[in-house]
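Researcher: Next entry in the queue.
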Amino acid sequence: MNPMTPTPSQLPDPATTLEITPEAVSAWIKLPSDQRPRLIDCREADELAICQIPGNEWFPLCTFPETGTKLTANRERGVVVYCHHGMRSLRGAAFLRAQGVENAFSMSGGIDLWSRLIDPEVLRY
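Model: Structure for this entry, 125 residues:
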């Protein structure tokens, strides 16, 4: 394993939380996509058009059941799901855990909190 590849120990303990902070995500977001947890944007197309976090993969929450195998690929890297405020992404992370992705998390506060704490260039809506 590449020394820069996040390990499960760099993600929160899935037994204790379903959420990860924007600060934790920002610590590895600039790594190449194959060296960090997957970042899934579960918002709708009109929201994606407003703003997004670079390096995301887009799967609207309503498509999770039909795109399960694409979503559960590379599960060993871990998955962080985000939405506008963190509610849909909680459902998305719970869905992924039910599909066997143990290291699936929701980014708390969503892209709105990301904009306020990490990257003010990301538009708020």
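Model: The first strand starts at residue 19 and ends at 20.
Researcher: Noted, moving on.
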